[in-house]
Amino acid sequence: MSDRIFLSPPFVGDEERNFVARAFDSNYIAPCGPQVDEFERRLAALSGRQHAVAVSSGTAALDLLMDYFGVDSSWTVFAPTLTFIATVGPAFHRGARLEFVDADPTGNIDCSLLDRALERCGTEKRMVISVDLYGRCADYARLEAIAAKHHAVFISDSAEAVGAKSPSGPAGIAGEAAIYSFNGNKIVTTSGGGAVLTDDPELAAAVKARSQQAREPVLWYEHKRVGYNYRLSNLLAALGLAQLDRLPAILENRAATSRYYRELGLELLPPVASENHWLNVMLCPDSASRDRLIERFGAANIEVRPVWKPLHLQPVFQSVKMHGGEVAAGLFARGLCLPSGTGLSAHDLERISAILRDSAEGCAKRA
Ligand SMILES: Cc1ncc(COP(=O)(O)O)c(C=O)c1O
After folding, report:
1. Pick the CATH number of 14-240 from 3.20.20.210, 3.30.460.10, 3.40.640.10, 2.60.120.1140
2. In the beta sheet, which residues pair with residue 155?
């Protein structure tokens, strides 16, 4: 059987090996060290923020933000339904009341629905967590205005959007704070990792301290509060630095793959300004044709996947309040994530397009 083509595998090589080896040889094999400091500086510059705090995952970054804002059962947290469960996991674990909001046709949160949902919100403490779905920035300017109008804390879950640029600035620039993920399937990977981005020095300092057990800055172990162990390993920060050096080439390569899919005449999610092309999503005519395509790709040893199953359709969230839902449900029924990894070869793309060409329903808009 032909080699497996993955959806978005890590893209690493000698550069990454050398960076990690240098960190290893320096014996900074700890969750702090010069590579973490440098990684944080580079992430702040990339996101256009004053501060970046590198942590062990995107989920940890969100958890630290929930901790910082004191999210608990007196809060209502609004989030898009079309996302990965990690967007709301930390708020859920703190007992927050969740409310989900439908997507607009781009897949990102429907701002008008969010505005109306906040209008009707009965609790004083509110938070909006928006998501840059598949590396496509949400409408930051509008979300900031809506959050301000309703006195809601605004957090941007930019886990999937490292390197993307919105009309308001780079992914990561929106809200009181934003987060990135450097999970193995992301555009920039540290194997596992994440970051909090913010312009607020107090937030940055608090998050950093709490990510390392909230130790007071004295020689002995002194604690005024209980923290977490969420720091990123220095070795993994070294990996991240090598990846950031590659980022322009990664983005170019991904954009070329996206153009390739568009030129095949596929119906894709409508483009948004300066996405990072993390995953290309094709829209099939219906769920039956999507499932047939999944089967054909599977038989050819090619990984494809339906888009995120909306949170309001997840058994665990059956009782969560939902605003709309038809758009996200429709995208889930029809949407298929195509292989979008950085290292796709011309031969890989030919194998993928052969399947699409052979499936009439796979090329809905094809002439
Ligand atoms: C939208 C979104 N939020 C949060 C996360 C969590 O990131 P991590 O896997 O680094 O914990 C992910 C990805 O995995 C994600 O896609």
Report:
1. 3.40.640.10
2. 129, 177
